[in-house]
Amino acid sequence: MKCVGNTLLLIIVLCATAAAQPKPQIRYVGITREAALRCLRWFCMGTAVTASPGDQVEFWVAGTNLAGVTGIQFQPPDGIEVSKIQTTQDTVYAVLTVSKDAALGKRAFIVTSPAGDSNLSSRVGILNISTFRISNLKIDNVANTNGALTFRVTFNYTDPSGAVSSEGLEYISDLSFAGHFSRYMSVKKFNPDGRTPGAKAGVMSYVMSYADSYTNSYTNMQRTTLAEFKIRLGAKDGRESDTLQAVF
C-alpha cells in the first residue's frame, strides 16, 4: 500500500488513574494479656489500654480501611517498639514492647499507610503507661431485688509508689445486661476497703449498686439474666489502671 501526500499518525495513550484509596480511620483499641480486654468490633469502656515499663503486650486497633496499614506511630514515640504488624480491613494487630525506662503517662497514636495517616487516637483510644495495676477481678454477694442490683467487687492492686493506697481514687464503670440491652456508665470517687496507707500491693473491695432509676430507657432490672461488668481506676496523680471485666 502506497501513501500519497501527508500522513498523520495519531497515537492516543489512555492512562488509567487508580481511584484514591481512603485513609485509615481508627475507632477504638484493645489489649490482650491476663485480666485485660480485647475489644475489636464493640464498644470498649474508655478505649484506654494500660501497660507498664518492661511489658510486652498484644495491641489491637479497630476501625475502617486498615488493610493497607504499615505502621503505628506513638506520640511521644520514645520507649515503645512496634513489631509483628498484621492487618485486615477493620483491624490492626501488633506487638508492643515497652522499654523499662519508658516515661509514664498517656500516649496517643496514629496508624500509617500509603494512603495517608489515620485520625489521632486521643478521642478514640490511648496507650496508658502506668505502674498502677489491678488484676484478678472477682464478683460476689450479688443481690437483685426491688429494681436494684448490688454486688461486691474485689481485685488485687500493685503500685510501686505506694500512693494509690493513700490517695482518693475514682472508678469508671460500665454495666450491661442480657435480656434488655441496658447499659449504665458511671464515674465516681470512691474509697474502697482494704487499702493500707503507703502499701505497694494489696486487695481492694467495694460494694457497687445500680438501680432502675439511673436510666429512663430501660426498667425492670429484675428481668436481668446475665450482667457484664467492667471497671477501671484512676489515681489522683492522673495515672490509670487496667480495665477489668467479669460476667456474672
Keywords:
5-stranded mixed beta sheet; 248 residues; Immunoglobulin-like; 4-stranded antiparallel beta sheet; mainly beta
Shape, per Cα inertia axes: globular
SS strand fraction: over 45%
Helix content: under 10%
Low-confidence stretches: 14-18, 34-43, 214-218
- Rg calculated over all Cα atoms: 25 Å
**CATH class designation of the largest domain:** Mainly Beta
What's the CATH H-level superfamily name of the largest domain?
Immunoglobulins
Which topology of the largest domain does CATH recognise?
Answer: Immunoglobulin-like
Order of helices and strands: EEEEEEEEEEEEEEEE
Query: Quick check: average pLDDT?
Result: 78
Strand element count: 16
Number of helices: 0
Count the domains.
Answer: 2
Largest sheet: 5 strands, mixed
Q: What's the end-to-end separation, in Å? A: 90 Å
Provide the CATH architecture of the largest domain. Answer: Sandwich
The secondary structure category is mainly beta
